Amino acid sequence: xxxxxxxxxxxxxxxxxxxxxxxxxxxxxxxxxxxxxxxxxxxxxxxxxxxxxxxxxxxxxxxxxxxxxxxxxxxxxxxxxxxxxxxxxxxxxxxxxxxxxxxxxxxxxxxxxxxxxxxxxxxxxxxxxxxxxxxxxx
Amino acid sequence: xxxxxxxxxxxxxxxxxxxxxxxxxxxxxxxxxxxxxxxxxxxxxxxxxxxxxxxxxxxxxxxxxxxxxxxxxxxxxxxxxxxxxxxxxxxxxxxxxxxxxxxxxxxxxxxxxxxxxxxxxxxxxxxxxxxxxxxxxxxxxxxxxxxxxxxxxxxxxxxxxxxxxxxxxxxxxxxxxxxxxxxxxxxxxxxxxxxxxxxxxxxxxxxxxxxxxxxxxxxxxxxxxxxxxxxxxxxxxxxxxxxxxxxxxxxxxxxxxxxxxxxxxxxxxxxxxxx
Amino acid sequence: xxxxxxxxxxxxxxxxxxxxxxxxxxxxxxxxxxxxxxxxxxxxxxxxxxxxxxxxxxxxxxxxxxxxxxxxxxxxxxxxxxxxxxxxxxxxxxxxxxxxxxxxxxxxxxxxxxxxxxxxxxxxxxxxxxxxxxx
Lengths: 138, 275, 135
Prior knowledge:
A: 138 residues; alpha+beta
């Protein structure tokens, strides 16, 4: 488990919160010593997932936890909403799949930017967990 | 009857002496400095006196585990093998055995029980030693490959608005990511409108490498720069066409010289002699 | 906060100064199109050098704006994309396609000027252009 050097939660209720969440993710990654490219990857992935939570889930929460454990820096992001759930996760993960206003792209795109992404969804709750970890090279 | 910890405490001098003797008898005495042995002994004694189980996970074995792990990783970083570290443990076990046999001569069951306890802990410490050693070696390797990545992708500014990145060696996915990152950063830092990516030193140009090249070109275009790939050998050209890889969207040239001309052409510049 | 759009002759400059919301991006798109309609401007530079995140939504808005402007006879150049942003977009499989780009604002303006004057050559119209485009 990650040492909780960083632990914060951002409510996702309006479009501004997407910006706040992705910038908080970038700040956290920077604080933990992730590279500039990784900071951008993480911020972009958070942007995709929190937008999904806002547009499809009607809003929710973005939790960011990170720290350094056993020679690895690690960051966990969990985005939760209380929306209707994703009916077909496999389909939602297909690159290019989109519904409505070209939104649903988020999942497949985000999954390519982080080391792991898992989705737990059912009517009334969707939770997307992302993790990025890097070995600390001294 | 004394407990195992009490036996170890009361026979401290004897066990230490015989432990030391066992070590000098073995080929590699390097690891067993007096300080190391005494430190290990204190921590083992402490562990045995407070532990409730025969498992290294027992909190009271924390200090000895940590000490062994550090010892082993230091040896790995210094380039020694892990076997000497486990021989150190084996020598301890051999030194304790006769003391235990004498102490528990009247109670065979108890003797067996305490001997097993020492054996189990020593075995688990040996495993830990190897794990710590492997981990330290992996860190060394990771650090070295990181350093190699850094050296292997230099970006040189060779002309106003033109940079050159010569690639040497096999391009795997992690290297391709690094190349993309370094090239884009160099383009941005130098405000280079053309970047020449020379692949003369890349032994195999296959579908996978071609895909990476395409991505680099797309990424550079988003920044506002053009890429010229040079050093496509006849063999590479044959392979790419046979594999039906289409690189027509990329500017490719056979030689670095032709690539440089192409770069100047993109910039609408010309180099000539002064009369 | 509104994103300022500066006008420099035939060119509109929109320097996006910080991370912006979806609404601000949409608003910017609408304003650029409106200005293309009501002014003589035909070229647009969207400078995104201060943007440290361009996700698929933002990428879509940028490409859409370029396509929409083209339909109105305008040209959009996106300048100053951050290298790490380009990497993230490529990795997501979301590169900007068919959009003119430049390393910085200055090169974007130069490129646009060259482009606009070459259009005029094709049209057979000389450099004075306010009459034919109204506004």
